[in-house]
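Before a colleague's protein record goes any further, I have to sign it off. My question to you is simply how this chain folds and whether the tokens agree. I do not need a full report, just your reasoning and any doubts. This is what I was given:
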Amino acid sequence: MEEMIYKVVAINGDYADLLRIDPPSETGETTLVALALLPEGTMEGSTLKRFMFEYELI
């Protein structure tokens, strides 16, 4: 499983828009993820690491 780094670009209700930054998204498209799956304290501008389908604030 590959490690990926995301930046939270927006929070809309119960969902967050994540932009992949490492490696960068080729299309600039964001990924919509439920806030319940993200670590407590996640907010716009946060950087997250995803590994094995688990997110961690970095």
